[in-house]
Amino acid sequence: MNSDDRKPTESTDEPVRKRIRPDPSPDNNPEETVGITQFLSNHDGFDGIIKYRYSDFLVNEISTNGSIVHLTDVSCPEFDSHKPTSLIDVPIDEETIERMKTLSKTHDKDTISIPCDNLTKEQRTSIHHFVRSIDINLKSELINNSIQVTYQPIGKQIRRSTDQWPDKTKPYIKFVLYKENRDTMDAIQSIAACLNMNTSLFQYAGIKDKRGKTCQEVTIHKVLPIKFKNINQRLPAIKVGNFQLCETPLRLGQLQGNRFEIFVRNLSINSHEQIKICVNNLMEKGFINYFGLQRFGSRTLATQTVGKYLLRHDWSLAIDAILAYDETITHEWLRQLLNQWNKTHDIKTILDGTIPYRRSIEVDLLRGLQNNGPTNLIGALSSIPRNTRLLYLHAYQSMIWNKIVSRRLITYGNEILIGDLYIDDINNDNHVVYVTETNRNNIKLEQIVLPLPGYDIKYPLNDIHSWYRDLLNEDGINIDQMKYHVKDYSLPGNYRQFLIHPGQIEYKVVSYDNIDDDPLKSDYDRLMNNENNVTPKLNKYTGLILGFSLPKSSYATMALREILHRNESQLQTHHQQDNQSLETTDEIEDIVL
């Protein structure tokens, strides 16, 4: 903000005191705060650095048919079954064609009119296709029985009508999105901005980590691949490819899981035998299916705290929590905005340009407050995207689930209890039944599930049910009243497996000399024939390359935690210390694993 615009008595240099304090945490242990306290194995483990570089973490989505999603082709096919094969098929004279070619070069605002009084629908379609074959930025549309051709950059053009789509039985395009050090929603937002489209037009099955190189599938309705042809040049950290027509859009959760390839750097041990013991324990015992720290956000005031207020229908506290000042926020402009808000509560001044305009949850909420006023706080909160609001609720659910799992392990270990819930159909994780004296001996521990609290789920028929009730009561939430007339703030609940056995575990201990060496190759590295050039001579460092597959919603960092026998936050601390000593801050930024 320009200093001349400030009021004489106002100072935004000093940060305002936080309006809300973070939840208390014993010994400032973030894992303990969200219930992550136990291990399945009792080996000693070892130290290592994870996600030191984003290239240390490769993720490939596994589709519902079990195939691993890879980027292997970055071309943009035509998919244009009606494209004319020769000029003879197109009822346009030579003069008009030359005018269109000139328009393509000059970008003038001229309009070229092609009469269509005596043309069939097929002939009109051939004209549309021919115009696009000259220049994708030439727009043709039927107006008053003539086709009007103008120059309009494709990013600003309205999507083509149904009658021009090549296969009406497959009205969607599916493509592979490859991204580096960008989260899924940010990548989609960047693509949508390049295409001048709304992000809501894109569908995907899951959100992939920011700090990594990831591949996943995305769908969009009736947008031909040619429109994406400049994306790979304009967005260096994002690539799209492997385009295909498909019948239906993707939905959140419509995936089997993810394949991970991870490099753990600078191991504290060199013993291959000890590393083998740790990895074998993961193979044999699996890991506790905790929700990882990334589920709960990176802000001082945690995401689950906002979720708690929303479930209590305490809208004012929820808004205060979202807009609380936090010095841990990376972006200076956002810290400045929240600082000014908490000092002045002057929405008009903030949104009228004293703070540089950026899209964020906080800006959306302030606009919602401006539009809805102080008496409609539910309406104001609705200005935040629905998926984001659900993340708050799900974070609270996840914290409760983690705490219940830890208490169960402390109290009962690996024992299967009468009244537990288990999956009896591996293909339907919502079909759960109770453990009885009769079936108890036929059930494996990995079949046991625990519910995420909600209004439409079963709870165990043992004392674990009372644990849920007590935890929710402590936060002012009634376990029997989790259905609210505003659907977005109602939680039906779900079930989650108690432990997970990763699939297809592979590992390799490697030596390297440079702390910044990159031994992993992503899909795009392979496509571009990029070599990792790791040729150790001094064997200065020891690293672990680990590959495994996990079902959807399971966290790779929790599998790593079981191998290393270290908490995520401990590994982050090693990460930060090493970065400072090595002065590699250009490659590192604040992360949530």
UniProtKB/TrEMBL annotation:
GO terms for molecular function: pseudouridine synthase activity; RNA binding. Residues 1-24 have a biased composition (Basic and acidic residues). CDD domains: PseudoU_synth_ScPUS7. Residues 1-33, 570-593 are annotated as: Disordered. GO terms for biological process: pseudouridine synthesis; tRNA processing. SUPFAM superfamilies: Pseudouridine synthase (SSF55120). Residues 286-501 form the TRUD domain. Residues 584-593 have a biased composition (Acidic residues). Keywords: Isomerase, tRNA processing. It comes from the Eukaryota. It catalyses: a uridine in tRNA = a pseudouridine in tRNA. GO terms for cellular component: nucleus. InterPro entries: PsdUridine_synth_cat_dom_sf, PsdUridine_synth_TruD, PsdUridine_synth_TruD_insert, TruD_catalytic. Residues 570-583 have a biased composition (Polar residues). The keyword tRNA processing applies. Belongs to the pseudouridine synthase TruD family. This is TRUD domain-containing protein. It comes from Adineta steineri.
